[in-house]
Amino acid sequence: MGSLPGLPDALAGLGALGLLAWLVFRTMNHSFYDRQWYQEQLKEVQDAHDEEIRELRQQHKEQIKELREQTERANEELRQRVSEMQTRVNELQGEIEDARRARWAAEDAASRWRRLAVAAGVDDVDGLG
Predict the structure, then answer these.
(1) How far apart are CA 104 and CA 42, in angstroms?
(2) Which stretch of DSSP H or E encloses residue 44?
(3) How many helices (H) and strands (E) does the chain have?
(4) Is 125 within 8 Å of 114 (Cβ atoms)?
(5) DSSP conformation class of 126
(6) Can you list the positions of beta strands (E) in the chain?
(7) DSSP letters for 46-105
């Protein structure tokens, strides 16, 4: 017969090459879909993470706002107490000053009596009462 001498070998080589090309194509196709699936999963996880971060930031902002309000109320109460204490300290200082002036006035009066008694010749100055 008049067949081509290298045809069976060439067909076998082409068949093997075709099979290899088909395997490469299928592997690349699966890799593409696997990569696409992985990217979709990654995107879902990133979106969930972003949402969780947004919620945490909102909670954090609310907590900071609440703590600032509490701090402001506590500071206002402290300012009020300090003001009351300052008023009381001023009152007590006034009382101390009044007592000091009264003591000085009494000492001045006692000194005058002593001088008068000494000038009058009274020997028992401390017993005058």
Answers:
(1) 89
(2) helix 7-120
(3) 1, 0
(4) yes
(5) T
(6) none
(7) HHHHHHHHHHHHHHHHHHHHHHHHHHHHHHHHHHHHHHHHHHHHHHHHHHHHHHHHHHHH
Distance from C-alpha of 70 to C-alpha of 56, rounded to nearest angstrom: 21
Instruction: Take residue 124 and report the two structure tokens written for it.
Output: 């028992």
Amino acid at 50: D
pTM of full prediction above 0.85 = no
97 C-beta neighbours (distance < 10 Å), count: 10
Look up residue 2 and give its two tokens.
Answer: 């008049």
pLDDT averaged per 10 residues in sequence order, the chain, 129 residues: 63 80 86 84 95 97 97 97 97 97 95 88 64
Distance CA 39, CA 27 (A): 18
What the block records as the tokens of 128 is 């005058």
User: Which token pair is 107?
Assistant: 């000492």
Quote the tokens at residue 85.
Answer: 């204490």
